[in-house]
Design goal:
Blueprint lengths: L10 H4 L7 E8 L4 E7 L14 E15 L2 E14 L4 E4 L14 H12 L5 H8 L3 H17 L10 E8 L9 E7 L1 H5 L5 E7 L3 H9 L3 H6 L2 E4 L3 H10 L4 E4 L1 H24 L8 H4 L13 H11 L5 H18 L3 H17 L6 H12 L1 H9 L6 H7 L23 H6 L13
Parallel strand pairs: 2-4, 6-9, 9-10
Antiparallel strand pairs: 1-2, 3-4, 4-5, 6-7, 7-8
Helix pairs in contact: 2-3, 2-4, 3-4, 6-8, 9-12, 9-14, 12-13, 13-14, 13-15
Length: 439
Amino acid sequence: MLNATFGAPDLTTFAGLEALGPIVTGQRIAADRAVLECRVAVIDDVCRDCGDRGRSLGTQSRYLAHEPFGCRPMTLLVRVRRYRCDPCDRFWLDDLRAAADPRAKLSRGGLAWALRALVVDHLSVSRIAAGLGVAWNTANDAVLTEGHRQLINDPARFDGVAVIGVDEHVWRHTRFGDKYVTVIIDLTPVRDRVGPARLLDMVPGRSKAVFKTWLSERHPSWSQRIEVVAMDSFSGFKTAAAEELPTATAVMDPFHVVKLAGDALDQCRRRIQQAIHGHRGHAGDPLYMSRRVLHTGLELLTDRQWDRLDALFDADDHAEVEVTWGVYQRMITAYRNPNRAIAKADFAALIESLRTGVPATLVELRRLGRTLNNRAHDILAFFDRPGTSNGPTEAICESGGGWSGTGWSGWKSGQTPRMSAASSRRGTPDRGSGLACTS
């Protein structure tokens, strides 16, 4: 850069302390950390009771973990002046509340760095504690307190919420304690296409009572503004929403509906595998080799994958798997249809066929049909309210773990189904049941 202008080096500004109050007066660099000696810039020697000036009694040292610089933890050694008012016999210290809370071990700069590292950079508490040079419990307690203050205790986070999503998440992988939390997400920005979903709250436990209690704690005016509640197939969430949000529409989103069909397909495949071979799937078993192909959308199948499916479905022993696969693909095709009126009619016809036309041998489809029939109103409500998928809720719960294994192979909203050259030549397999996909 030509004619570049630089200011004088200032360690106080470099360390981000100009807004916190302390001024750097010295430094000590060690192999494991850097220590900055500071003093409070503003002299607070006026007695708040009588207004006289207090007498200085020296200083006290206070250590604060600060934002790390130079790949090593940084500690602030703040020399806090101590005063005494002789007429009032009162003692006090320099006001350091701008730099840290009373009795806190972390400065406000260190707190901001820790919270940013956890929420934005997804660092573990162990890494945050190592970066600050403090114990794990110290870092964890400080981050939880600051997170509640900035995120959870902010009443403005409930403003403008019209669509919410609710889901459960396993956060404790131990034998003791409640391992579930109920996660509530604001899906309004997703529906309005103005931004990503927002985390509203996480409540320990997973039950109707947990969600109902959380809803009852909200202001009545807020509850009246809620238009849609997106959820999975757990009946407890639906009952709680119906009781506390009677004017809101419950939507069972495609994410979990397709997952139900995908689970039915996997269960059918495993049952037939055991019936034919008497053991779980091995590397050379056709059903086991096709487990991923069965979950692939029709328009994404290659010629080689179509050949594998043709060979699989040519065997009469695999007819039940083929029928279940057809229902699975028919469900995905309905969700992919850009014409929501036609898609809704197709899905309603699919639910009706599963309710009345499934043979007794197809136990997985009969179970799926009962579930879809019980929640038919919630499932079909999605087609009248675009943008109310609970997928962002699941994504936040899993912290970016993806949608693998849920049957959403290659699905994109608004994408019309198309068939490869091989599939258009063969057509979709349709043997033995009117439930098979007929795209």
